[in-house]
Design brief:
By secondary structure, the chain is an alpha+beta fold. It is built from 13 helices and twelve strands. The mean pLDDT is about 80. It catalyses: ATP + protein L-histidine = ADP + protein N-phospho-L-histidine.
Length: about 450
């Protein structure tokens, strides 16, 4: 009798069963693997759903998701709160049921328009729980994985919130503008304060002259009154002649003309100084006009040099008259700042020399101030016109002078730059000579 192991058919049958079992094991292992992947995907989907639900719930803007026919598929809590309707009662309805009748014609074309391009800031009204609610609505297409349009997404923000935000923004802008104006005026007054000593000295000379002349005129008036009283009382010709010699009326009459002329000259000088001062300190709300830049430069230079306690050599190359266009008071402030900065920069320098020049350059006028100070560090040049930036020690500069000056010159259609030269720094200002931008 032969061994079954020697039967080839039996061996093939066992191999087949082993192969089937192996395949079944592999299939089972694949099923287990796929089951694990499915569970992981389900967990991921659930997490994503919770994530998107939390985002929708936290949105303050209303959200409406529609299919290609305009039927609502999903809304968020903000819309539920606005309409006082539950999402379950809205899903499946056409989104136009939420739109006020006056805007139905406007939204009917949304689906057609969104095929071409998204809609932005479209104003319409939804039916709110307490009446129509104005919204600024954005409408975007919703595409499937093949890029085909399957619906649209509507996101709206109540215009009341936008109007409130615009109002707050306008208020903040107005406050910033007011603060800027106050800073400009504050810096102008700071510049003016630095000149008070020089101006006081300038005023003191003509006022003292006028004051002295008026005292003399007062004495002369008393003598003349005494003489005229004698005439009225009927004094004789001889008595009047003696009184005329005693009161020295002949000399008095000769002096009257010079006293009056001197007093008028002093008063005119005071008037001139006061006009320059008023021009500099005014808010300059008037229209721009043509003015003499040479006079502005000389006035600013005169005041600053008078106030300076250090001997400063001044080299001028300024024409007798040079016309520019703008607010002379504002440009006066700029010139004062530039000259004062140059004077301050030379403190401690062995050579203290200012070089001022002005000239006509085409349709512009050029003003330049050179000093013999240490110059400006290269890393600071680009920041010189930044607000509150200053290279002066703490307490000696606000950091606003150059910033405000740059703004004034730019508003005039000009240009202001500061560069280094061989012996220090140079400020260069261009202004239009006539009306219009330079």
């Amino acid at each position: 009798m032969s061994d079954k192991n020697d039967d080839p058919s039996m061996t093939d049958s066992e191999d087949a069963w082993v192969s089937v079992i192996q395949k079944m094991d592999e299939a089972y292992a694949d099923l287990v693997h796929y089951q694990v992947e499915v569970e992981e995907k389900n967990a991921e989907l659930e997490e994503n759903k919770l994530f998107f639900d939390s985002i929708q719930s936290s949105m303050s803007d209303v959200l409406i998701v529609c299919d290609h026919a305009g039927l609502i598929q999903q809304v968020n809590k903000a819309l539920e709160a606005l309409t006082d309707r539950n999402a379950d009662t809205l899903i499946g309805e056409h989104f136009t049921v939420l739109v006020d009748e006056r805007f139905l014609q406007k939204v009917d074309s949304f689906l057609n328009q969104v095929r071409i391009q998204p809609l932005r800031d479209c104003e319409l009204e939804l039916k709110g729980a307490e009446g129509p609610v104005p919204l600024s609505m954005n409408c975007s297409p919703r595409l499937n994985h093949r890029g085909r349009l399957v619906g649209m997404v509507l996101i709206g923000r109540p215009l009341g919130e936008l109007q409130k935000a615009y109002k707050e923004l306008n208020t903040a802008h107005a406050e910033l503008k007011l603060a800027q104006e106050r800073l400009v005026q504050s810096e102008k007054m700071a510049s003016l304060g630095r000149l008070v000593a020089g101006v006081a000295h300038e005023l003191n000379n003509p006022i003292s002259f006028v004051y002295g002349n008026m005292h003399a005129l007062q004495r002369y008036t008393e003598r003349l009154s005494q003489y005229f009283d004698a005439i009225n009382e009927g004094y004789s010709r001889e008595e009047l002649r003696e009184m005329r010699e005693t009161l020295r009326l002949d000399k008095l009459i000769r002096d009257l003309h010079s006293l009056v002329d001197g007093t008028m000259e002093g008063a005119d000088r005071v008037k001139e100084i006061v006009n320059d001062l008023r021009q500099f300190s005014s808010t300059q709300e008037s229209e721009k006009t043509e003015f003499d830049l040479s006079h502005v430069i000389r006035t600013a230079l005169h005041w600053i040099i008078k106030e300076s306690k250090r001997p400063i050599e001044v080299v001028e190359n300024i024409p007798e008259q040079l016309s520019a266009f703008g607010h002379s008071g504002q440009i006066h402030q700029v010139v004062v700042n530039l000259i004062q900065n140059a004077v301050d920069a030379m403190e401690g320098s062995s050579t203290q020399r200012l070089e001022l020049s002005a000239s006509l350059q085409g349709e512009q006028v050029l003003f330049s101030v050179k000093d013999t100070g240490p110059g400006v560090a290269e890393e600071d040049i680009s920041r010189l016109f930044d607000p509150f930036f200053t290279t002066k020690p703490v307490g000696q500069g606000t950091g606003l002078g150059l910033s405000i000056s740059y703004g004034i010159v730019s508003e005039h259609g000009g240009d202001l730059t500061i560069v280094n030269w061989d012996q220090g720094a140079e400020a260069i200002m261009f202004l239009p000579q006539q009306g219009g931008k330079a």
